[in-house]
Design a protein that fits this description.
The chain is α+β, with helices and mostly antiparallel strands and about 250 residues long. It contains six helices and eleven strands. Strand 9 and strand 10 form a beta hairpin. Helix 4 packs across helix 6. Bound molecules: coenzyme A (COA).
Length: about 250
């Protein structure tokens, strides 16, 4: 995988649930995502009347978040929402019936599926090509959580879907692109088989699993709320300097 500066650190957050509103990292995340998604005015709804950027999304409360920082500054993110706990964005978009048909087509059930979303890198850092490590890290995290399939609704106009298809994403037959005003994009639904990843992608996921200490010896276990959540922190997390409740900071 690409080499990136030592000043880059990875951070993993477990679902903040309902009381997450006051959490500083969540507010920072909303601001960073809002700024990137606003894209200089392309998506005006991500800017508030006071001029600040915001991407407040209730699904954040149910998601596992992987964040990337450069010298402490938030520069990238991605998240996964286990479908066993929440109706995801793709289901809202397709409607319940079509979404159920999709699960049948995939031969799976909600408890084994997660929705990946908010894959974002701040444009000032695009030269470091951190998009792929973010996807690979998310894949490793999802697998560690016991998920087998990922679903994503992604834009096509900036080549995002193409990149994700190179990383193993597959388009669902019969699902045509959906025009979406909010994102000023044509959205497609992609699925990822975590048990049979694309050959060229697997080494990246393995490397990120090691980097994030998400290995098989340290499996996620079933916990309350009906979704898998970690029982024990991954090997090196407990010794990290900046560990706080529900989150872990890892050196690059
Ligand atoms: C989408 C986004 C996160 C991508 O970030 P990025 O830093 O530009 O990503 P990268 O440069 O690492 O691009 C990923 C690269 O990995 C490559 N890649 C993917 N799978 C690969 C594989 N298995 N083997 C080798 N390379 C692979 C891709 O082809 C791409 O390279 P290319 O641009 O030369 O084709 C970023 O552009 C962004 O934040 N966009 C705005 C928000 C957005 O649209 N998010 C997506 C929502 S669907």
């Amino acid at each position: 995988m690409n080499n990136y500066p030592d000043s880059f650190t990875w951070e993993l957050h477990f679902p903040p649930n309902e009381d997450g509103h006051g959490q500083e990292w969540l507010m920072e995340l909303s601001k960073m995502r809002g700024r990137v998604l606003h894209a200089g005015g392309r998506r005006p709804q991500f800017r508030q009347t006071d001029g600040s950027f915001s991407d407040h999304d209730p699904l954040d409360q149910w998601a596992y978040h992987l964040l990337l920082r450069s010298s402490g500054c938030l520069i990238g993110c991605i998240r996964v929402v286990p479908l066993s706990v929440q109706i995801c964005g793709t289901e809202s978009l397709l409607g319940h019936q079509r979404f159920e048909q999709l699960l049948v087509h995939l031969g799976t059930t909600r408890d084994r599926v997660g929705e990946v979303g908010r894959w974002i890198v701040a444009p000032e850092y695009s030269r470091f090509r951190m998009g792929l490590p973010l996807i690979a890290g998310l894949g490793a995290l999802a697998k560690w959580l016991g998920l087998e399939t990922l679903i994503a609704t992604v834009g096509t106009r900036d080549g995002q879907a193409k990149t994700l298809m190179r990383a193993g994403g597959r388009q669902v037959p019969g699902f045509v692109p959906i025009k979406c005003q909010k994102y000023d994009d044509d959205l497609v639904v992609l699925t990822f088989d975590l048990l049979h990843p694309a050959e060229s992608f697997e080494p990246f996921a393995v490397e990120m699993a090691a980097r994030l200490s998400l290995d098989e010896q340290n499996e996620a276990r079933e916990l309350p709320y009906g979704f898998p959540m970690q029982m024990t922190r991954p090997r090196d997390w407990a010794s990290g300097n900046d560990v706080c409740a529900g989150s872990v900071v890892l050196k690059a």
